[in-house]
Structures are given as C-alpha cells and as structure tokens.
Specification:
By secondary structure, the protein is an all-alpha fold. The chain has one domain: MFS general substrate transporter like domains (Growth Hormone, Chain: A, Up-down Bundle). It has 17 helices and no strands.
C-alpha cells in the first residue's frame, strides 16, 4: 500500500463511521422515542449532544494534535466512542442515552479535524482540496449506511444490537489509525510549551481572520450537521407520510447528494485554489444552499423528498471553509486553527439541532407529532441566520483575509 493510501484510508474509514453515528438517530430515533417516550425537543436534545461532545473537546484536542500528532489523538478518541456506544446500547434510562450520545460525540470529534491536520502536512494545497473531497465522500457512504442498512439491521437485531455493532466498529477504527497511518510528520513532545500553544490557540479563536469565515461556516453547516442528520427522517415519515422503510431508503439516497457534492466541490475548490477564488466559491455555494431551504417552504410537500438529496449536495460546500481558514495560518498551528473553527461550528450545530426541535415542539400536532407549519418556521429562522452570517464577507469583499497570529 502506498504511503498516501496509508495516510488516507484509515482516516477516511473512520470518518465514514463518524457520519453513520451522526445520522443513525434519523432511523433509530423512532424506536428509541417509542421505548422511552421522548418528545421532539427531547429527541433533538439527545441527538444534539453528539455535537456538544465536539464542542467540549476542540480546544484541548486541538492543542494535543499539534503536540502529539493527529494519528495518536484521534485513535484515543475512538476508544471514548466505543464506551459511548456501549453506554447507549445498554441504557436503561434517558440519562444513560444522553450520556452515551455525548461520549459518542467526544469520540468522533476528531474524525474530520484529525485528517484535516494530517493532510495539511502530507499534501499540497491543490491536491489537498481534492483529497478532502474524496475524504468527505466516505462520509456520504456513512450517511447511506445510517439510513436503509441501519433500518434493516434494526429489523434483525434491534436498535440496541445496532449500537453494540457500532461499538465494535469504533474499536476497530482506533486500531487501524494506530497501526496503519505512518508516524512521519508527528511532532516531538519538546517542540512547544503547552502554555504557549494555548495562548496561540486563544489568539486564533479571537482573530478577525477566523471570525470572517466562522459565521458562514457554522450556520451553513447547520443544514448538513443538524437538520439532515435528524429532522429529515420526521419530515419524510410525518410530513410526507412515508412508511418507515421508504423513509429510510430516502435517507440513504441522501448519500448520493453528499458524495456528489463532496467530490464535485473537491474538484471545484482544487481549481479555485489555483485561481485564488476559493472564498467566492464558498459564498456562491452558501447562497445556493439557502435557495434549497426556501424550496422546502414554498414547494408542495409531495415534491420535497428529492430536495433532501439536493440539500445534502450543495450544503457540503461549507466543509472547505476549514481548508480556507487553515491556509491563513502557519503550518505548525494547523490543528488549533481547524479545531478553533470546528469548536464554533459544532457549538452552532448543537444549538441548531436542539433549537430546530424546540421550534417543532412549539408547533406540535394534537397527537404530539411534528407539523409542516413548525418546519416552515424552523427553516425560515435558519435562512435568516444564514443570510446574516454572510455579512462579514459581503461587507468587505475586496479585502484579503490575512492571519493575525
């Protein structure tokens, strides 16, 4: 196996698994809700704890990645994900479910930041955009596995059996990262003092360079991270009135959009990087994403299932904000830059998924289910926030973003 594949495949397979863990509640949420009597707000909070796990780990793990390298740090986090899957699978109370979901989030929190940091060391900027696109395509495969195949697995072994299987998969991911990824480019422990690294991290987190990119990167990704991964299922089952099996197939079909978007944007941004147009491409992709959200509000419900595929495809543009932000800072700070941005992205994703559930809860039907009116209000709020998030870039389009650290 070539060195490039030894770097790429373990990280990509781990990312596939992280995406499956992210979206699996879109199908597992129904039997869990029935067993524990969860409301839409409860389900939104429980599922969004995955994102809170990301928020809790970005600062310390970003520092550790720059100090010890992404291979070792991400492998360690997957052991935490294994524990989270075990707690969730064996859960007897809602508290167990909440704890398990949080630990799963902690465990998967470096599945994108680890490779983003590693690829910065291993690949040139032009090749890196394409490699990131290929890496993200594995996430699309994970999304597919979290739909129809996960539904089929639950029919055979139940939702608890499904999470026991995911526990075994997360343990395997940790082993592959430790044993297959080369150790080259890993920093020595003596390179930089931890206190200095923390000061530099806080400088990144408070820099204008990051904050021009962070709002758009965060709120555009709410669609992919929060809405598609949980609320596409209730939309298809309760708004479009599909059977659970048909809804699961449509959720798996969303992976077509993800894979197409990740690969297409990989090629587009690879060319845009050479032409100095990466930021304009990001802004255009954000506007297209918003237009799809508008379509959910104005089109007849029966026309909307294919929109989820399109939503997944165009919404994947925001992933390249990490590469744009990281390139503005020194290579030695790549882990902290990526995790600083990811800290903000997943804080917004946590609030977005929970907030979406709160809005749906406020417009519940007489039987306690979600309603079309609730979804329209939730999408409208999201659209307004996304338009506001683009102002830092649109108000200073001619200014070059320059690092301040």
């Amino acid at each position: 196996m070539s060195l490039a594949l030894r770097v790429f495949l373990p990280f990509a397979l781990a990312y596939l698994l992280s995406y499956m863990l992210r979206v699996v509640n879109a199908v597992a949420g129904a039997p869990v809700t029935d067993e524990f009597g969860l409301s839409p707000a409860d389900l939104g909070l429980m599922t969004s704890l995955y994102f809170l796990g990301f928020v809790a780990t970005q600062i310390p793990l970003g520092i550790l990645m720059d100090r010890f390298g992404p291979r070792r740090v991400e492998a360690a986090t997957w052991l935490v994900a294994t524990l989270g899957c075990v707690v969730f699978a064996a859960g007897a109370t809602t508290g167990h479910l909440f704890l398990g979901r949080f630990l799963i989030g902690v465990g998967a929190s470096m599945a994108l930041m680890g490779p983003m940091t590693a690829y910065r060391h291993w690949f040139t900027p032009e090749r890196r955009a394409l490699v990131i696109g290929l890496h993200m395509a594995f996430g699309g495969v994970g999304s597919a596995l979290g739909g129809g195949p996960a539904e089929a697995a639950m029919d055979l072994i139940g939702w608890r059996g499904l999470f026991w299987g995911l526990a075994a998969a997360t343990l395997t991911a940790a082993v592959l990262l430790l044993t297959v990824v080369p150790r080259r480019h890993e920093p020595s422990r003596a390179t930089t003092e931890t206190r200095l690294m923390l000061r530099e991290f806080m400088a990144v987190l408070t820099s204008r360079t990051l904050w021009r990119i962070a709002p758009i990167a965060s709120v555009i990704q709410v669609g992919m991270l929060s809405v598609i991964s949980l609320w596409a299922g209730p939309w298809l089952r309760q708004i479009v009135e599909m059977s659970p099996a048909d809804a699961a197939l449509w959720l798996s079909a969303n992976s077509i959009g993800l894979i197409t978007g990740f690969l297409a944007y990989g090629f587009i941004f690879s060319r845009a990087e050479r032409m100095g147009l990466a930021m304009p491409v990001l802004v255009i992709g954000a506007f297209v994403t918003i237009s799809v959200e508008v379509a959910f509000i104005v089109l007849p419900v029966a026309w909307t299932p294919p929109l989820w595929i399109l939503f997944a495809m165009v919404g994947s543009v925001a992933v390249h904000s990490y590469n744009i932000a990281s390139s503005q800072f020194p290579l030695a700070m790549a882990g902290r830059v990526n995790t600083a941005l990811n800290f903000l992205v997943f804080a917004v994703a946590f609030l977005g998924q929970w907030g979406f559930g709160l809005v749906l809860d406020a417009w519940r039907s007489d039987t306690g289910g979600v309603t079309y009116e609730g979804f329209k209000v939730a999408f409208l709020v999201l659209i307004v926030l996304q338009l506001l998030a683009m102002l830092p870039l649109l108000l200073s389009p001619s200014r070059r973003i320059a690092a301040e650290v």
